[in-house]
Amino acid sequence: MNATPTTAGRPVRLGLRENSLQFTLLVIVNVCVGGLAGLERTTVPLIGSRRSA
C-alpha cells in the first residue's frame, strides 16, 4: 500500500496485509476479553443468587 518515511529510516507500511500479524493478535485478544466479560456476566449473578447455609 503506502510507505511513508520515518525518522528512524524504516518506512511505515500501512494496510491489513502488511500488518496481518498485529491484526491477528488484536483479534485474538479481543475474543479473549469478550469471552471473559461474557463469562463474568453469566456466572457472577449465579454466585450472588446462592444463599449461604
UniProtKB/TrEMBL annotation:
Membrane spanning stretches: 20-39
The organism's place on the tree of life at top rank: Bacteria
Keywords: Membrane, Transmembrane, Transmembrane helix
Record protein name field: MFS transporter
